[in-house]
From TrEMBL:
This protein's name: Uncharacterized protein
Source organism of this protein record: Lentzea pudingi
Region (Disordered): 121-145
Length: 145
């Protein structure tokens, strides 16, 4: 069943064509500062002259925690996109390998046909020539591949 691998390869390429624009169209991650600003202003409103030195590490820790959460979310999103791109790369290489094998098979068939035709023409021009199996073109000297 030669059509089944072709069907598999074409379905794989169809999935790649459908998914790749979705990956390209994703927007860059944005750092939402409005939530941080509101919470930081609430925390700063509670700061007075007496507890200013104690409030500084609390505010810095809050901002650092928010940035760390944002970086973790961006890293997770990056990992997901990277995994999807890796899956697409596997599908592309699989399809490429299949089409390369198919191309080589077709080239061998054409080589065999060419040899058979040249042998038949030789037999027609000289009926007394001995019968031999034609040598495929890719086995002949001078061919680079």
């Amino acid at each position: 069943m030669k059509s089944l691998p072709f069907l598999r390869a074409s379905l794989s390429l169809r999935q790649i064509r459908r998914r790749l624009p979705q990956l390209r169209g994703q927007s860059s991650p944005k750092l939402d500062l409005s939530e941080v600003r509101e919470k930081a202003l609430e925390l700063a409103a509670e700061v007075s002259q007496t507890n200013a030195t104690a409030a500084e590490p609390v505010l810095a820790a809050y901002v650092d925690t928010h940035i760390a959460d944002w970086l973790a979310n961006v890293k997770a999103r990056h990992d997901i996109v990277t995994a999807e791109l890796d899956l697409l790369a596997v599908r592309v290489s699989e399809s490429k390998g299949f089409y390369q094998v198919h191309h080589d098979d077709q080239e061998n068939v054409l080589d065999d046909l060419e040899g058979a035709v040249s042998h038949a023409l030789e037999r027609l021009s000289d009926p007394d020539s001995p019968f031999y199996d034609p040598e495929p073109r890719n086995k002949r000297r001078g061919r680079s591949s």
